[in-house]
């Protein structure tokens, strides 16, 4: 039991030391970056106000250019998706037209079920004419049912 605990303690110590080393490396990298930024800032302060403004403008232009490129890429993706959706819409519209055309080709005698359904719908409409009373909290459900 004691050996098992010692082994676990050593594993934890090793993991802790590895984690500490990784964190030290990260802190060193951050310090180097901070020093670079401080030097750049000090150099910028030593420049004339006109040059400072020009550098600021150059940085802003670079930022806006990158943002513009990102937006162009997004626009291209959206346009590509729009074309794809338009193609799908045309295909589905063609299928609907073909289906409607095939329904008109079927003789009337073969469609008695459809006529019965239309009559049934008309009867239901007549049965339920008038005002509708409902609770305010049931409104979303009512609207959904009306739409479907």
UniProtKB/TrEMBL annotation:
It comes from the Eukaryota. Residues 2-102 form a coiled coil. Keywords: Coiled coil. This is MYO5B protein. It comes from Oriolus oriolus (Eurasian golden oriole).
